[in-house]
Amino acid sequence: MMFETEGAISQEPEISDLVPSETSASPSNEPVAGSSFPKVLRSRLDSFFSDQNISPKADLTMRVKIAAGLAVLAGSWIALCVLNPGSWKFVALYLLGGIAQTFLLLNIAHDSNHNAISARSLVNKTLNYVFDLCGISSYMWRILHHRGHHSCINLHGEDDALSGRGIFRFTPYESRLPWHRFQHIYALFVYALFSLDYVFFRDFQCFFCPTHEYLRRTRHPLREYAILFAGKGFYLTYMLVLPVMVLGKSPLLVAGAFLLVNLVVGLTVTLVFQSTHTIDSTYFPSDRGEFDNGVYHIFATTADYATENPLVGWLVGGLNHHIVHHLCPFVCHTHYAPLTRIVKETAEEFGVSYRQNPTMAGAIRHHLILLKQLGNEN
């Protein structure tokens, strides 16, 4: 089946348990008398693949995206090393590599993190190292994203994506501090620091000074500590040391380009995710047992945006089709568009609220509206 339909979202499942079974359900597209919304939706989503005899994993489009993203990243650095251009061309090529990193994080690393690219785990594991290539621990991202988000969407104190660390108030259950009244103003500036935070601080905090109880209980394999430091070292070497020591660029120029790239990566990735759960129309449950079924939890706490704009979907790794992503996390994002149409039609048929914004800009605006509301209300 595509997703679990019985009971509320489970309590701190193992990472492997968070990727649903891929066993096909009934091929029928018609609702059975007395059938529940989750059951019918599950059947229809499964039938999309069984009826057309296609794999839910990567298709030709996805393979092209993987090749293109890696080629642009590698090509930008080959051009830097071979051409050794002047300052402005250096910054342009360096920024192009940063844009490629953003594309790879959203389109490749996220899917591989969910084992959505291939049925062979080695392929997903290998591509998941794109996170480390971009200075972020793939191992820790996987833990935080699965245990700290997919299993507890919009739950205060559990969903890691709602951890404002005192800077933000993302839920009505969090204490309001004086500076939160301005959070809708400074949000974009702070979001731009997301990548730098992960590269230099967050990963190390999660490994060595964790705040989440499940991280404190987890014994990380020794190899993951080695990969953590090797990954950070490799990233900082090719991003900072190589341009200065090999290409002879000014440390100040390289540092400025490095900062610019990380601001672009941080702001883009943060907004892509924040505009799907923390907007003024999504719901923040009081506890895990508030919904009888996890599917209703997903629909209440998640919103789509720009689902009719294929360019947005292509650039953000299908994450604008976010309800489908949470319903079918093991499915490659290049299949999300037709699955979203099934979700919309079935939700309308059963009278289930389907949340969406027609544009990404609109979704971002509604995120900022929520921040303003939470910053001014107790």
Structural commentary:
The chain has 2 domains: 17-57 and 294-376, no CATH class; 76-276, no CATH class. Helices cover 59% and strands 1% of the residues. The chain is built from 16 helices and 2 strands. The chain has helices at residues 37-52, 60-83, 87-113, 121-128, 130-133, 138-150, 183-191, 194-208, 213-217, 222-245, 251-277, 294-301, 310-315, 322-327, 336-350, 360-376, and strands at residues 304-305, 356-357. Strands 1-2 form a two-stranded parallel sheet. Helix 1 (37-52) runs antiparallel to helix 15 (336-350), helix 3 packs parallel to helix 11 and helix 10 (222-245) packs across helix 11.
Please provide a brief summary of the model:
The chain has 378 residues and is mainly alpha-helical.
Output the keywords.
single chain, 378 residues, mainly alpha, 2 domains, globular
Helix percentage: 55-70%
Number of helices: 16
Spatial arrangement of strands, main beta sheet: 1-2
Give the helix/strand class. Answer: mainly alpha
Count of DSSP strands:
2
Overall body shape = globular
Number of domains: 2
Q: Quote the distance from N terminus to C terminus.
A: 42 Å
Tell me the β content: under 5%
Largest sheet: 2 strands, parallel
Order of helices and strands: HHHHHHHHHHHHEHHHEH
Low-confidence stretches: 1-34
Mean pLDDT: 91
Q: Specify Rg, calculated over alpha carbons.
A: 21 Å
